[in-house]
Amino acid sequence: MDEFVDISLTLNGRPVRRRVPVRQHLVDFLRTELGLTGSHVGCEHGVCGACTLRVDGRAARGCLMLAVQADGCSVETIEGLTESGEIADLQEAFVARNALQCGFCTPGVLITAAELLGRGQPMDRAAIRAFMSGNYCRCTGYQAIVDAIEATLRARLERAASTGDGGR
Amino acid sequence: MPEGGMDRPLPIGVREPRARARRLVAGRGRYTDDISLPRMLHVAFLRSPYAHARIRSIDVAAAAAAPGVEAVFTGRDIAAACNPWQGNHALFPDLDSPPQYPLAIEIARWQGEAVAAVVAETRAQAEDALALIEIDWEELPAVVDPEAALVPGAPKIHPDRPSNLALEFTTAKGDVDDAFARAAHVIEETFVFGRHTGVTLEPRTIIAEFDPTEERLVVHQSHQAPHQQQDLYARLLGIPEHKVRVICPDVGGAFGVKLQFYADEAAVAVIARLLGRPVKFVADRFEAFAADIHARDHRITARLGVDAEGRIVALDVDDLFAIGPYSQYPRASVTEGGHIARLTGAPYRLPAYRARVRMVYQNKGLIGHYRAVGQPIACAVAERLIDGAAAKIGLDPVEIRRRNYLRDEDFPYTSPTGVAFEHLSLNRCLDLLVEKLDLPALRAEQQALRAKGIYRGIGIASFVELTGPGPDYYGQGQVRVSSQDGCIVKLEPSGKVRVVASATDQGQGTDTAIAQVVAAGLGVRTADVHVLLGDSEVCPYGGGAYASRGASIGCEIAFRAARQLKGNVLKVAGALLQMPPDALDIRDGAIVDAEKGVERLTLADIGRVGYFQQYLLPPDLQPELAVVQHYVPRDQAYIAGNGIQASYVELDPETGFVKLLRHAVVHDCGLIINPLLLDEQIRGGVVQGIGGALFEEVVYGSDGQMLSATMADYIVPMSSEMPDIDVWHVEAGIGREKLGAKGVGEAGTAGAMGAVLNAVNDALLPFGARIAQTPCTPQRILRAIREARARGTTQSH
Q1: How far is A101 from chain B (nearest CA, A)?
Q2: Backbone angles phi, psi at A41, to 5 degrees
Q3: Which chain A residue shows the shortest CA-CA distance from B35?
């Protein structure tokens, strides 16, 4: 029943070529074929956000994309964002505020939050809460997540104001 | 007061972040589905499409021949290799739940019950083959409504049982009827508490591997209680217990969902044994909604009698609750109703009390032990009635509680249902709440806005929570669930410390808290302590995580074991220094002169001598640098905690939407080990309680079809609709001889529903409307307003 297609993509900055079943979801491809188990599968229909990845610079649901749709794309996962150091400040804030408990939602939450931070715009708590609404967390009650994002955003904006680099 | 609080040594009381959190934010978590074993196969289950149906015939030939399929199993195939089980409890001898099997045999009794299993090289192939299984179903009448289930002549779910009534019990103290006859006011309400479920973001996941050469079963499972599972796999599959190992890696949320023994997971273990190859099963989200345990689902009629001054004279609670077709194994589904009988009105002086519980079989998913088991219902019922009484008499909700709370002079106290409360700090919690929230100002704001057509409500709810149960409940219930925990604390030769404990962690931070109390008990830094949990072969035997026991029992024993190790270390140090051990102390990882604090030796010196250079010690001194201790609370059946919550909401009477403006908690958890982790436990619990109050509902149609089986249909609270939650603490009632932490995992959930329900009803007051059904959906709120308008009870405003 499986048909296969060759794809090539940039994964966490490095080229990857694989032959994939056409029906395989991107997140399943990353997890089972490439061992990138930092992306999680929570609902498989795009609601919970646990599988959130970055595809061509934007947050995307790994369970709503097929692996073949990533052909030619640049895909970044929590492993890549961690190794590049791009969200080290955000990760530190999450640890310091205990903005995670079981951690299953956390990689997806961090990638969505990275997108928020990447805008370089001031946001109040209500706006942060609204932005993060596509990522369910069942453990924390969200407050510490909002705290951590708010603190990281403020620090980045202050740093940007002092160096004039636009907050990235 | 030093940061450590009380006279407890640092780093107890310090806001230490979790070591595990660093790993999880880096995407380096290791959840069960992240594990892949050589020659591993994947299972998919065919699940009953009907709530109640007979399997006339089942043909698996086409599925067995499908690509990648290794085997297909039906109910009888699996039952031949697994004993059935019954979710009974000896404290409720009338409960005789029928035998349950891994896969349905002959009759499926809820939609989603697993009927057949396909094992294939990939999950996708297994699912493909499911579609090829032919079953000739005979649909049977579904019993869905609990009241209809009890009507004489109703279809019976278990033909060999006298009726669908699984259990009925009554507990009473005092002359209830007489007290009601003499009450100045009687407030009565009929409540409907909807069914909800845990929705762990990581679904249930299990990998079982059986090595026929050693006859050894190893199970990797997303679970809270590895020793419980070891016992069950051993007994039900007939494998000697020392050849069963259950490993719980990182667990992606549990909340009691992962405390149970599930039929489909039993099937996975059996299949691994039959095939001699590792087998993985990951529940998908539909399977999670259909086959995870559910919670609540109560219809309660309750009456509160008060005298003219608002003092309670009697409380009468009648709970009808439906548990699905079986009592959940191994803990029995009775706990939901039991806690309601045990705890309704628990914060108050109750001269006369009666509770009747009826537990009914029905064709829905099973009811188990989701966070706070029954306690949110007990709280909501009593707190609604108290507010009702306050409104009737014209008393402030704060004042009526003050008049009725148990007081300091009442303790130690035994409740009307026989539960001992060593001490509760109800008035202190209320006082702190009133002060911190400035409740009078909030009331004034609410009243002022009401005049402008803005309808806000304030709700408060006091609760008593039962944490860290001792052996009375499960032990006397003949349920093989450990209420004891064990801990090994070991000094490594380098002077660093390893801890192996039976408590488990699903995100609470129990491992960090254990590291902190061991650091405090021994005199080292938290960073020098490594904690391993969740392996039934390696860890001392114990209960794992349930009923808020990580801090109250898991940390208690870790502290004691660390103190014992400290004594052993100081014996060695004393011999080396030729000083009495009690003249020495361990501080910050160094052996010091207890009086002057001067460093004399390092822990690495003790490790070197203790493991390699014993010749330096007197011949009769055997160094014991690893200790194991166990602890089970014996002085009381439960460690009772208490608290109060407040909810401030705004109601839109046109849409029925409720906006949560603010939520606050004052809680007494005894000793605080780590305020950072503590507050987040409470907040997370509050949000789950809010979910049950406003959003979450497992909905079934009248035919027993689940109508809420996706995350788009079952509404989990999102960040945008949750308020900030203030958490304040009262530290009271800590004895000297114990570490004295009480459980905290369920406090948030226990009180939130009652607070929100009272707040919504407070906002509805101007409309003369009230709501006694959860979740309080916009539709139900609008109906309440509409019905009040029809009755003409709207107050002028």
Answers
A1: 4
A2: -110, 115
A3: A37
- Tens digit of each residue's pLDDT (9 = 90 or more) over A106-132: 999 999 999 999 999 999 999 999 999
Contact (CB<8Å) A140/B683: yes
Q: Do B683 and A141 touch (CB under 8 A)?
A: yes
The number of C-beta contacts closer than 8 angstroms across A and B is 180
Interchain pair A37, B31: CB under 8 A: yes
Residue in this structure with the two tokens 């489909």, named with its chain if needed? B264
B contacts of A101 (beta carbons < 8 Å): 253, 506-509, 680-681, 684
Q: Report whether pLDDT(A166) > 60.
A: no
So what's the pLDDT on residue A2? 72
A42 in contact with B, Cβ within 8 Å: yes
Distance from CA of B13 to the nearest CA of A (A): 15
Assign 3-class secondary structure to B467-534. Answer: ECCCCCCCCCCCCCCCCCEEEEEEECCCCCEEEEECCCCCCCCHHHHHHHHHHHHHCCCHHHEEEEEC
Tokens for B224, please give them: 């809270």
In Å, how far is A62's CA from the nearest CA of chain B?
15
The amino acid present at B219, given as its one-letter code, is V
Q: Give domain status of residue B555, yes or no.
A: yes
- Average pLDDT of the residues of chain B: 96
B546, B574: one domain: yes
Q: Are residues A42 and A8 in the same domain?
A: yes
CA distance B579 to B570: 10
- Evaluate whether residue A146 is within a structural domain: yes
User: CA B290, CA B50: separation in Å to the nearest integer?
Assistant: 12
Q: Cβ contact (<8 Å) for A79 and B677?
A: no
Nearest residue of B to residue A82, measured between CA atoms? B26
* Chain segment B199-219, per-residue pLDDT in tens: 999 999 999 999 999 999 999
Name B447's Cβ contacts closer than 8 Å, sequence gap at least 6. Answer: none
Determine the average pLDDT of the residues in B710-721. Answer: 97
pLDDT range class, residue B47, cuts 50, 70, 90: very high
Reported ipTM: 0.97
| Backbone conformation region of residue B6, classed left if phi is above 0, alpha if psi is from -120 to 50, else beta | left
Inter-chain touch A101–B17, beta carbons under 8 Å: no
H helices of B360-417, in order, are: 375-393, 397-404
The range of the structural domain enclosing residue B509 comes to 484-631
Instruction: Please tell me what DSSP assigns to residue B16.
Output: P
**Do A141 and A91 fall into the same domain?**
yes
3-state secondary structure of A108: helix
From chain B residues 723-752, the ones with a CB under 8 A of any chain A CB are 724-725, 748
Averaged pLDDT score across all residues of chain A: 96
A150 in contact with B at a CB cutoff of 8 Å?
A: no
Check which CATH number belongs to the domain holding A148 and give it.
1.10.150.120
Comparing CA positions, the residue from B140, B122, B138 lying closest to residue B130 is B122
**Residue A120 domain flag:** yes
pLDDT, residue B740, reads: 85
Q: Which of B23, B25, B676 to mutate to probe the A interface, most A CBs <10 Å?
A: B25
A69 shares its domain with A104? no
Cα–Cα distance, B553 to B722 (Å, whole number)? 32
